[in-house]
Every structure is written in C-alpha cells, then in structure tokens.
Amino acid sequence: MKKLMNSPDALVDEMLAGLVAAHPSLLQEERVIRRAGGTKRGKVGIVSGGGSGHLPLFIGYVGDGPLDACAIGDVFAGPSVDSCIQAIRAANGGAGVLRLYGNYGGDRMNFDLAGEMVDVDHIQTTTVLGTDDIASAAPDDSVKRRGVAGIIYAYKIAGAKADAGAGLAEVTATAQAAVNACRTIGLALSPCQIPGAAKPTFELGADEIEMGIHGEPGIWRDKLRPADDVADEMVRRLLADPVAHKSERVSVLVNSLGATPLEELFIVYRRVAALLKREGLTIVRPLVGHYVTSMEMAGLSISMIHLDAERERLLAAPCACPFWRV
Amino acid sequence: MKKLMNSPDALVDEMLAGLVAAHPSLLQEERVIRRAGGTKRGKVGIVSGGGSGHLPLFIGYVGDGPLDACAIGDVFAGPSVDSCIQAIRAANGGAGVLRLYGNYGGDRMNFDLAGEMVDVDHIQTTTVLGTDDIASAAPDDSVKRRGVAGIIYAYKIAGAKADAGAGLAEVTATAQAAVNACRTIGLALSPCQIPGAAKPTFELGADEIEMGIHGEPGIWRDKLRPADDVADEMVRRLLADPVAHKSERVSVLVNSLGATPLEELFIVYRRVAALLKREGLTIVRPLVGHYVTSMEMAGLSISMIHLDAERERLLAAPCACPFWRV
Amino acid sequence: MAITANEERHAARAREAATLAQDELNTADGKMGDGDTGVMLRRLFGAVAAAIPDQETDLGSVFQACAKACASGTGSSLGTLVTVAMMTLAKATKGRSQIGWDELGPLLALVRDQMMARGGAKLGDKTVVDMIDAVANALVDVRTRKEASEAARKAVIETLDAFRDRPNRLGRARMFGERTVGLDDPGMLAFSRLLVAVAA
Amino acid sequence: MAITANEERHAARAREAATLAQDELNTADGKMGDGDTGVMLRRLFGAVAAAIPDQETDLGSVFQACAKACASGTGSSLGTLVTVAMMTLAKATKGRSQIGWDELGPLLALVRDQMMARGGAKLGDKTVVDMIDAVANALVDVRTRKEASEAARKAVIETLDAFRDRPNRLGRARMFGERTVGLDDPGMLAFSRLLVAVAA
Ligand SMILES: Nc1ncnc2c1ncn2[C@@H]1O[C@H](COP(=O)(O)OP(=O)(O)O)[C@@H](O)[C@H]1O
Ligand SMILES: Nc1ncnc2c1ncn2[C@@H]1O[C@H](COP(=O)(O)OP(=O)(O)O)[C@@H](O)[C@H]1O
Ligand SMILES: [Mg+2]
Ligand SMILES: [Mg+2]
Ligand SMILES: [Mg+2]
Ligand SMILES: [Mg+2]
C-alpha cells in the first residue's frame, strides 16, 4: 500500500497544515481545527473529534452549520485530552458546548476528562455519542455500538438547531434524537494500512468481503457477490434493526470508505433507492460520496436516518463547511 | 481489484440511473445527462462528454454554471456519435453550442461527426479541446496534448461566461483562453481495472510510481519518494512548461485519481502552496479533492491555471452542480 | 463464387472471435493505452451480430444496420473507425446482393481511405489503418474464397511482424514513443484476429 | 536497594522496546482492532523519553512530566490508560526520591484501580488491566530488583497463557467475540513486552 507522505509521524500535522491552507474558513491551533470566525456569542458550541484518517470527517464539517471545532488525534487514535480541552474552549460561545463524537473508548475517556477539566472554566458541557453502527453490537446492547458515518447527520441537524438559537439542553436532545433515529452498516472490500505500520491492518481474499467495518476486520466474512445482492443484504439488516420512532421519510447516505469510486456508490444507491421505495419510504436529500473514510480502504457504508418534521427542516437548513453545503 | 457491480455491461447504465436518482437536478436520456431545467432560451449551451469511469467528471458538472449536458461512453471509451448529437441538441438554447471536451481520438471523431450532423438542425457549434496534460506531448506539440483534470476550470469559466449572456464566439474564446492558461501533471501509484477485463491495465512495483497518467501506464517510471520530493518535481515540471500569458494569480487543483485519500492530497497541497508562494504566485480558490478520477486508481494530479481579472471573476461566479458549488 | 448477404455467419464469427480475443487485446492496449480494446470489441460485435436483419439480401442494408449499431454502441477510437468502415461498406454495396472476391481489395482500400480521412492517421503510424492497407493490397488479385483467405492470413502475419519493431505514432500509444517498439498495436492485432476468424 | 529517579534509563529502554515490538503489536491489534497499538506506543514512549527532566530527583515530578507528555501526545485507548497510570504514579510518589521494591506491587494495584475507574474495564475482560492486576499481585512480596524482575516475567507469561483462550469483552475487540479466542490481547501483550524490557 503506497502512500504519498513524508513520514508517518509528520503525517497528521502536515495534513492539517495543507487543509487549513486550502480552506481559509478554518483555523488550526495545534491539533484543533476551529472556524476562523469563532463561535457566535450566545450560540451553543458543538465540538467533535477523533482519530485522523477519516477525512472529510471531522474537520470537513467545521463551518457555518455543523461543528464549531474539532480535536484531532493520530491516525485511528482519539484526540489527546489536551486537544479536547482546547477544542471545547474554542467552541465555547458562552452558551455551553455539546460534545458530539463517536463511541470509542479512547475518545470517550479523553472527552470526559476534558469535560471535567473545563468545568473549572465554568463551561457547561453535555455529551452525545454516535452509536449508529449496527454491526458493532446487538440492538439490546445498542449503547455499546460505535459511531460511524451516520454521525454527520447528527452534526448537521444539531448544528442547525444551535444556529437557530436553541439552548444547550435542546441542542443536546436534538442531537441524541438524531443519533437514535440513525443506523449504519458497512462493507469492506480491502483494508487500509496505518502509516508507519509494516503491512495492512487485515487481509481479505480476492473474492472476499466483510460486513461491518471501519478500518478493522469485519464482523462477518462473506463472498463477493453482485452489487444488488450486497445492497439487498445491507438494506435488509438496516431495516430489521429496531428504531423507536420510525418515519416514512428518511435520508440515506451511501458513503465510500476511501478507494471505492463514485461509479460503484451510484450503482448501489440505485438499488437502495428502489428497495426503500418498495418499503414505502421516501428518500429526502440523499448523500452519495466520500463523507467518512478510512484512508485508502475500499468499501462503503449505508446510513439511514428517520426524519420527523423538525429533523427534515434542520437537515435542509443552509450550511457551509468545506465538505457539505446546503 | 474487487468492484461492487452487477455486470460489466450494465455498469454504465446502472451508474447513470443511480446518479440521477440521487440528483434530481439532472435528467437522463439514454447516455446523455442534461439539466432538469433545460438550457435557458438564448443562452449559449455548453456540452461535454467522454468515457465513463472518471466521476464526478463529466456528469457532476452539469448544472447551473458549468455544463448544460454531457454524452457518456462506456468505461474509458468516448461517447457514441448518437449520444453526442443528442447531447448537443439537449444543450441547445438557440444561441449555439460549445463542444468542450478532452482531446482524445475517439471523442473527437464522434463530436465532429455529431457537429456535422446537427448542422442540419441549424444548431451552430464550436469546439474547444482540453489539452492540459503536459506529460502527453512536448510544449511545441501542445495541440497533441490530452485533456485531463484541468478541464474543469474551463467548464467553470466558460459556463460563467455563458451565464453572463455572452455569445457563442465569446464563450468559445473564453474557454480556449482558459485551456491555454492551464497545465496539469499526473502521478500514478496503482492502476485500475476496466470492468470486464481480467486484470488491471498495468502493473507497478511496490516501490514504483509513474508520472503523467490517466488510467494508462505513465510516461516516466520512478521510485516512490517522500511526498515533498514528488510535489517538488511535479511543480517544477508545471512551472517549466511555457504559458503565453502568465499571471501572478493562479488557481490550483490537487485532484485524487480515485483511491488516494484526502489526507495525502492535503499533504501535497501544503507543499505545492509553499512552492508557489516562493515563486511569488498567489493561489486563488484552490480545489483539493476528488474532481476527475479513473475509478479505483491511486495517484493524484496537480493542475494550475493562470488567472487574468476576467477568469478570476468567472471562477468566483455562483454555480451549483452536484460536485461543485460556489 | 461471390460474397452474399448471408452475413449472420460472419457476424457470429466476428462476435466469437472478439470474445475469445478480449483478454489478449485488453492486455495489448494496457501496454500502450487504457486497456479497453478487447472489452470494447466484444461488446461492439455483440451489438453488430444482434443488429443484422433477418432475410435481408441487400448488402448495403446489412452494412447499414451494422453501421447503425456501431454508431449508437461505441465512441472509442477503434470502435468509431469500425463505424466508419461499416458506413463506407454500406454506401459502396447499396443495392447489391453479392460482390465478387476480386472486389474485396478495392472495398478495403476505400475503407482505409475513409478511416484516414476521419481519424487523421497516416500510413506508417502503426494503427489499424496500416493493417487494412496491407490486406487491401494483398487481396487485389484474388478470385476465390480460398485465395482471399490465404492472402489475408499471410498479409496480417507479415504486417504484424513488419510493424512490431516500429514505434506507434498516433493516439494514446504515441505518448509511449520508443516504449512501443517490440509491441503489437492493439488495433492491428484486433483486425488480424477478426479477419482470421471470419476468413476461416 | 530501591528505585530512584534515574529513570532516563528505564524510559530509554521502554522506548526501544516499543520500537522493537511495534510490528508485533500492530499485527496483534489488526486481528481484533484497528492495527495501531504498536505505532501508538512507539510514538508515545518516544515522547515520554524526551520529556523526562534532567537531574530531577523527585519521582513525582518525573512521573508528572511523563503524564504531561502522554496527555498531549495521544488519545488512543491504551495511550490514555498509560496517561492515567503516569498521573497515578506522579501523585503517589510526589516528594519522594526513591521507592522500595516492596512498594511496586501496591503502586501497580493503585494504577490498576485508576485505570478501571477511568476506562470501565472489569477484571476478566481481557485487557491491559488484567495484566497489570496479575503483575501487581506477583510483586506483593518482592524485596529486590532480582526478585521483582523474576516475578514479573513469570506473571506476564502465565497471564498471557491464561487469557489467550478467553474472549475479549471490551473495546473494539469485544465486537469480534469468539474470534478473539486463541489470540493475545494487544494491550496485555504490549505491557508484557515493555515490562520485560524495563526489568532487564
Ligand atoms: N486516429 C486513428 N486512426 C487510426 N487508428 C486509430 C486511431 N486512433 C486509434 N486507432 C487504433 O485504435 C486502437 C485503439 O483502440 P481503442 O482501445 O478503442 O482506443 P482508445 O481506448 O484509445 O479510444 C489503436 O491500437 C489503433 O490501431
Ligand atoms: N476501556 C479499557 N480499559 C482497559 N483497557 C483497555 C480499554 N480499552 C482498550 N484497552 C486496552 O487497549 C488495547 C488497545 O489499545 P489501542 O490500540 O491503543 O486502542 P484503540 O485503537 O482501540 O484506541 C486493548 O488491547 C486493551 O488491552
Ligand atoms: Mg486506534
Ligand atoms: Mg479507451
Ligand atoms: Mg483503448
Ligand atoms: Mg488500536
């Protein structure tokens, strides 16, 4: 697996430097990226973060709308507690800060620690964890589930709520409801390699696929089948997973994990759209592209979020960050 | 090379079906994609096209701004003459149609033939060919050069000119000037595989790279080096290529050929920006991402366009198509 | 003896030959191009074989149907030249239900000229045009299927050999310059494989 | 005999051990996680080794410097637990210039408890915490470097063996359930490699 880089240890900082050079709407402060404009006084701040290697997550969603700041760790490693503190402070506009990030051990310990430490600054914080990956735990153990691509819906929806002037408790409740209404399933075709590692993280045979991944080996291994078969199984599993408040209106994200090209995403989206239509569901504002990746990994994920009237409105609200514009 | 598809022969049509399902601003008519709204009466139409396998090119640039329609061929094969005719007709708003596409033998024969055939409909057409790939011919033979990623600048600039009400001759001249001001160089890290082919198009050793590519083997083969070295050489070659009307203001596109992730693009962009700054150049509206790909190929290209005052203004003009918004 | 519009047989053979040669042609094109010659021809001759009208005796109409299938089926360089060839043959054989073996050479010369006019290739550029030129010349004096078949086979082998060590001068392959020395041009190779199959 | 703040040597050894074990730990983590344990530890102990203050005799200050380097250097699960360990040790050894070998066991037990409080692991979940627990117990009665070193070595080998055939119950590895049976937990493996190197 060839990578264009200078050294594994410089990768994250050089990537951040390039990113802010290309996007003047963002500011870098060490391992924190914040909006150049800062958080509007009185607006609830939203902060996220996690390991590097998932661009455009998280940084690409910092901007007018979704996130106010994010804390970045090394590749696939959570942000340090220092970065979390710095990001919470950067996102603070005086009305409290929602920590909205994926449910991973390292990230949680560090954001929690950071929350305790900024208490001293009298910044009120709340937490909502992304837990959309249905492959990572059974439905009755859903608090153990990890957050994957579906979290961008929570970013967008909570961000629009905060923009509209809601208070911290309301923004937090809206984010939690968005997470609760969202499910994701992933599929790997080929692995990625941690910069500095001697070989790819896992191996897959020439005719093998894995379900339920995110830079790691998958939960079920299977044979590569026609795209429609694969889409059928993924959608079936998504629909079978219980959701408390279902809706007839959903949004769908067909997301490349990295190397899988748009051509294949659209072939899969075509099938997903047909299947959901057959179920009587209406797709609103579908997203197809590279939204949450694991470097050069091949594969894709499908996320579905049930939309009540408010979530649909918030999803449609204007936003402008480097990788999402409405 | 694993692909999520149903069959090689159905790939293009299924991809198009998914694409228009996800993007209701586009309409599909066989192998032609056009804006759902149609071309405004009296506006010069701009049509492009070429082989499939390069998404978001070409389709992703059909919309308010760049293109009015495009004709799509099989993977890496030009559009058929029938599709070219259909696309020209679809783009026609009564003020003539500019055919703006990459300089490839098949594409040229078919768009030329189509142009002759729509003469009967009294649609006036002109042609501008993308010829930005400096690796594909020497500077004194630049009419033989192929069009690669840099063509999206010509789309955007010519599209904004047409939107502003300019006539066919003016839009054509603006597009030609944009092509003349733009240079691209590409780099391959790994090949792609034509759907239906038994193996990837070419092979590269674990420590090899190639310069100057687009789904084919490259022109020079080389050892994989640190990203900064590679960027230095690419920028050096770009700057050394003669351009008639240079400017101190340029835009730069660092484009993934498919599998190369954003992380690596930003590392390279960081270096490119530093090098150009050192040359006294100012970068305006840089683009970093997946703009013109060759399916799952790994590698990237760097394009640079010199901006006079008009081109800078046209580049900044509002546009809204699925893969580019200003 | 003459060639009649009982062309389904030829078309079916061409389709099979294209299917068989697919990987070989992709590989040849992968060395100096984008690796799609084989996939393209397999698909193209599939469409051509399906387009031939039943019971049609007019050769012009048969070739016209082939031309139409090509024109809507592909836009690759070689595919477009096949379209040009079909259109040329359609015009030249319009109203005729058979052509003599001695007419084949001149017809191919006409095809060659139309391809050169449309594609801009010159003789010696190492493209499919050189192969057609060689076969056209070889067929000038033939009178029977057997003679035609033998002359064509000989010509394609000699022409591949003659061009192998020259560089490509046109299309994508041009960029690779001296690296194409020692390699067969995919278009020439394709025409040779099809011709041998159809002539069998 | 006692442990003093002449810790550069230990830190340098830990750094070297982490570098040596990098690929092994990545591979172990690649089987039930995201494959980064080795890269992370190599980087982390590089930062720790660089952070140790020269000439400092106060053990608490030394560990405090290590904790700071960790807190700004990583946020991975294991890395954060190392931060917790360093903070715990800093607090526990504040103002002291040496600690006895018999204090090591209780100190590690403190570390274990703090890690459990922060990370939520329970004993038996097959994490680094189980390894620290085992070593803490093994060191309870030791009086000399030699005894400590031998007891620790024995404990890590036995503990790896004891847990290998049990499933992981926490973190990323939890998802793989029964597929983790037969595999070493990367965090337990990492602690064992570091300990053996530092104890050498
Ligand atoms: N302008 C041209 N004139 C004559 N022959 C050509 C021309 N361009 C390409 N060819 C022939 O077509 C072959 C390549 O066919 P194909 O793979 O379909 O082209 P591409 O993928 O470049 O569109 C070449 O080997 C050559 O023989
Ligand atoms: N909550 C936890 N409590 C105790 N140990 C843990 C916890 N989470 C992870 N570990 C340990 O850390 C190791 C993985 O470390 P690392 O690769 O840094 O984690 P990750 O990549 O999942 O952030 C596991 O093998 C386990 O021993
Ligand atoms: Mg990790
Ligand atoms: Mg082609
Ligand atoms: Mg080709
Ligand atoms: Mg890990």
Give an overview of the whole structure.
The complex is a heterotetramer, with two copies of chain A (326 residues) and two copies of chain C (200 residues). With 326 residues, chain A is α/β, with parallel strands linked by helices. Chain A has two domains: 154 residues, Rossmann fold (3-Layer(aba) Sandwich), CATH 3.40.50; 131 residues, Hypothetical Protein Tm841, Chain: A,domain 3 (2-Layer Sandwich), CATH 3.30.1180. Chain A is 31% helix and 24% strand. The two termini of chain A are 36 Å apart. Chain C has 200 residues and is mainly α. The longest helix of chain C has 25 residues. The mean pLDDT of chain C is 93. Classes of the chains: A alpha/beta (326), C mainly alpha (200). Chains A and B meet through helix 1, helix 6 and helix 7 of A and helix 1, helix 6 and helix 7 of B. The structure holds adenosine-5'-diphosphate (ADP) (2 copies) and magnesium ion (MG) (4 copies). The site of one magnesium ion has 5 residues of chain C, from loops.
Going across the biggest sheet of chain C, name each strand in turn: 1-2
Overall structural class of chain C, as computed from helix and strand content, comes to mainly alpha
Strand content of chain A: 15-25%
Assign the CATH superfamily of chain C.
DhaL domain
CATH overall fold name of the largest domain in chain A: Rossmann fold
Low-confidence stretches of chain C: none
**N- and C-termini, Cα separation of chain C:** 16 Å
Q: Which two chains form the greatest contact, residue counts included?
A: A-B, 54 and 54 residues
| Order of helix and strand elements from N to C terminus of chain A | HEEEEHEHEHHEEEHEHEEEHEE
Share in helix of chain C:
55-70%
- The helix-and-strand class of chain A reads alpha/beta
CATH level-1 class of the largest domain in chain A: Alpha Beta
Mean pLDDT of chain C: 93
CATH architecture of chain C: Alpha Horseshoe
Q: Which assembly state applies to the chains in this document?
A: heterotetramer
Number-wise, the strands of chain C total: 2
Shape category of chain A: globular
- How would you sum up the major sheet of chain C? 2 strands, antiparallel
